[in-house]
Design a protein that fits this description.
Layout (H helix, E strand, L loop, with lengths): L1 H10 L8 E7 L4 E7 L7
Antiparallel strand pairs: 1-2
Length: about 45
């Protein structure tokens, strides 16, 4: 009985995707660089 409950709970598990946002500023060039990884959003 306990095994059946565990299997049913595992079916409803939602895996979160990892988002990485990196910003770097270069003083010499006076520019910012942005890197976005794993970001998903709907297109309007």
């Amino acid at each position: 009985m306990a095994l059946v409950k565990i299997q049913k709970l595992n079916l409803g598990v939602i895996h979160m995707k990892k988002e990485i946002r990196t910003v770097v500023y270069d003083d010499e060039l006076r520019m910012e660089a942005y890197r976005f990884e794993g970001i998903v959003q709907s297109f309007p």
